[in-house]
Write a structure and sequence with these properties.
2 helices, 91% helix, mainly alpha
Length: 69
């Protein structure tokens, strides 16, 4: 995962936490739910990026074996 992707995901997660907290504090269930959705999106993006990195490393390992590096 690149640093910028990681930072963007963390920022989205923190934004979601803030919305959720603000919604809980004000009794705004819609804002609270929106914050939870933002956090979920950030988590999914982080997991997809992590999976893509694992696939890339696997492909690189196979390529290295085939080329003898």
């Amino acid at each position: 995962m690149s640093f910028s992707d990681d930072a963007k995901n963390k920022a989205e997660e923190l934004k979601g936490r803030a919305k959720e907290a603000a919604g809980a504090a004000t009794g705004d269930d819609e804002l609270k739910a929106e914050g939870q959705v933002d956090q979920g999106k950030a988590d999914v993006k982080a997991k997809l990026t992590e999976a893509a990195d694992k696939v890339k490393h696997g492909v690189d390992a196979v390529k290295d074996k085939l080329t003898g590096h």
